[in-house]
Amino acid sequence: MSTKVKSPDNLPNKPGVYIMRDASDTIIYIGKAKSLVKRVKSYFREKLDRPKTQILMSHFDSLEYIITNSEKEALILEANLIKKHRPRYNVQLKDDKRYPYVKITSEKFPRLVITRNVTKNGIYYGPFTDAGAVKQTVKFLKSLFKIRTCRNMDGPCLNSQIDLCYAPCDGRISHEEYMEIINKIDLFFQGKYSTIVKNLKKEMADAAANEEYEKAAVIRDQIASIEEIMEKQFVELMDDDLDQDVIAIAPSENEVVVIIMPIRNGKIVGRDDFLMSGSQYDSSSEVLFAFIQQYYGYNRHIPKQILLDEDIDDKELLEDWLSDLRGNKVSIKVPQKGVKLRLVKMARKNAEIIQHQKKKMENALIELKKYLKLEKIPHVIEGYDISNISGKFAVGSKVSFKHGKPNKKMYKHFKMETPGPNDFAMMEELLTRRLKMVGEDPEPDLIVIDGGKGQLGMACGVLEELNLTHIPIIGLAKEFEEIYIPNSKRPIIIPKNNKALHLLQQVRDESHRFAITYHRKLRSRNISASSLDDIPGVGKKRKIALLKEFGSIDNIKKASVEDLAKIDGMNQKTAENVYNYYH
Q1: What is the CA radius of gyration of the chain?
Q2: Residue 274: its H or E element
Q3: What pTM value is reported for the model?
Q4: How far apart are CA 264 and CA 303, in angstroms?
Q5: What is the rounded distance in angstroms from the CA atom of residue 244 to the CA atom of residue 418?
Q6: What is the pLDDT of residues 241-293, one digit of tens each?
Q7: Residue 475: beta bridge partners?
Q8: CA 52 → CA 75, 283, 387, 498, distances in Å?
Q9: 62 and 4 in contact (C-beta within 8 Å)?
Q10: What digits encode the pLDDT tens for the residues 381-397?
């Protein structure tokens, strides 16, 4: 229960959290204290040394406080309240939800899924900044360990029939055996791949001793796959079994870049970068403290040791809290020599590089504003493209760039309804459908379409019809990289080596790539859904057998009659039918 007051005079000499509000009753700052009365009174001195405190108190109107049993409880409550209310003058971990997590679900037979929403259910790994790598890893683990992917477990699915799932829905694997597989996946994400390999080698030996040669062969392939992927992904640094995270920062005027490098079994297993906003008036120590508090307070793996590039205040409080979360001792160190110091320097260098790239991107946006004579910097840019072959499987794509970087959660595909081939009319349909959604999806600061005067004229007509002519729009003609803007006869030419032009090219090329990828997917889906079904003699069982053996329609097309006839359930006549159909 909180108590609201106007001054610190009657605050208790107890640990707790204080919540400051302005005249409109908006929360502007949340802090923790070992002694509420002593901490809050420091804000009411006649001379305030820190600029942040001066600005904060110029907006202060009232405060409320919540008493806790300990300073550690206050730390936890402060983190939760900051995450909930996001006060203006607190240092905050920015855009945390943009990163995907991998989740082992809490079902009886768990699944492995990628999610951006973290709840209390399940086990989470991440966040990961490279969504593509995460998808590949999850796909690899699903096929390697053959865990279920279906939601409802309502009977053996195609995956079980082509040996990609152990089919717990059909009782083909016990709950105990299945959970052993889930434990291996857990070890994988903890970076303990040597433990997985060791366990698998024992299982393989046991299977061979029991003359279960097929099982032993499967395990042998699993071992080879894990060793191969680890050899590619992990950089070995030292012969050390410590479970560590290395954290370093690179400050700037408004935001701080934070790098975190997880190290498992003496090997770097990744690198993530984050932004801390509202940090312009805070020291590096305060930023690092806030990052650790907010980062680890959100269902993440807690390492045995955290290495920092500089010391922080209240380190013992954080260590105590992290030790509770982990279940055993956690230490926070600032290394002074050796391999650990080199790791911290490496992390700091990475943070500085990202900060430098960020500044270059900001400069590119400023240049773009200047060349295109825009009223404001185009922080959100959308690009559009159409892909089709003679009008078939026609698709449109919308890509979105935020602060000069792809914002993939705002990408969108459209199946075109306009009969084709007619790229002009299809682009008109695409823009109309997208811009009618303004309100659901925020409007962009700039629209980029692939084309010259004609395409731009059509696009301007769409904006007029929807009363959206205030949104800037350009056409980027590919041959000479000329930029066309409304109501101007001459194109704008941006120098070829200019970052502003490179950004526009990236938006256009990304929209083209995204459209083509979806177009190919639809074509492929159509082929796989119909071609085998059209061949005389090929029913469900033979279709599954062919796909299981050859892996894809393309490989079936390449197979000889002899190879096709060897498949279980096939005969010479059906093999000839399959071969003749594709040739």
Answers
A1: 29
A2: strand 272-277
A3: 0.59
A4: 9
A5: 56
A6: 568 999 999 887 677 889 998 887 767 777 788 888 776 777 888 889 999 99
A7: 449, 484
A8: 21, 11, 53, 38
A9: yes
A10: 999 988 876 556 788 88
Q: Is 243 exposed, middle or buried (0-12, 13-18, 19+ CB in 10 A)?
A: buried
Cβ proximity of 256 and 93 under 8 Å: no
Please provide the distance, in angstroms rounded to a whole number, between the alpha carbons at the two ends of the chain: 77
Domains in the chain, ordered, with CATH?
3-90 (3.40.1440.10), 101-235 (no CATH), 243-356 (3.30.420), 380-524 (3.30.420.340), 531-582 (1.10.150.20)
205-209 long-range CB contacts below 8 Å, 24 or more apart?
none
Q: Which two tokens stand for residue 19?
A: 């919540």
CB atoms inside a 10 Å sphere around CB 307: 23
Q: Is 256 left (phi over 0), alpha (psi -120 to 50) or beta?
A: beta
CB of 486 closer than 8 Å to CB of 455: no
Q: DSSP per residue over 145-210, as a string?
A: HT----SS--S--HHHHTTS---GGGTSS-HHHHHHHHHHHHHHHTT-HHHHHHHHHHHHHHHHHT
Distance CA 66, CA 12 (A): 10
- Report the relative pairing of strands 305-308 and 405-406 from DSSP bridges: unpaired
**Whole-angstrom distance, CA of residue 169 vs CA of residue 72:** 45
